[in-house]
Amino acid sequence: MSLVGTLEADVDISATAQQFFEVMCNEPSQLTSIVPDVFKSVDLLDGLWGALGAISSWTYVLDGVTSTVTLLISAVNPITTSITYGMIEGDLKSQFSTFTIQMDAIQKVVGSTVHLTVSYVKLTEDVSTPQALFDKAVEVIIELGAYLAQA
Predict the structure, then answer these.
(1) Are the beta carbons of 35 and 144 closer than 8 angstroms?
(2) Of 48, 57, 68, 70, whose CB neighbour count within 10 A is largest?
(3) DSSP assignment of 68-89, as one string?
(4) In this predicted model, what pLDDT tens digit does every residue of 81-91 receive, in sequence order?
(5) Who contacts 150 (Cβ-Cβ below 8 Å, separation ≥6)?
(6) What stretch of H or E contains 118?
């Protein structure tokens, strides 16, 4: 059994790639009002939203459990509407040595497709694949896309 893993999905949304990127990169604190059942707080700790190296704290609920993770923007490209967040610390650190979330929003004629990639390294073989967290991320992308398409 490998400690290293990747989960990937293509999620079609009604919003444009730019609309999606704008929120996930530059205004992720909006998630607390768009999907308040999932995100309780998203706070900038250091740097500027959307800038390489920016550090933010995210408090979220998964399966009734509230958790916090501190993320660093490790890659950002406004031209390709791509952003990567890497875990620095938080509740996930008890299970994973590394955990990254990459979102590439690809514009279509109508709407866009968000290619979601979650890459991780488990601390031990006993740690489960983060499928529930990945599935919740897909749900959030769908909800955000629907919200932005109506805005």
Answers:
(1) yes
(2) 70
(3) EEEEEEEEEETTTTEEEEEEEE
(4) 999 999 999 99
(5) none
(6) strand 112-122
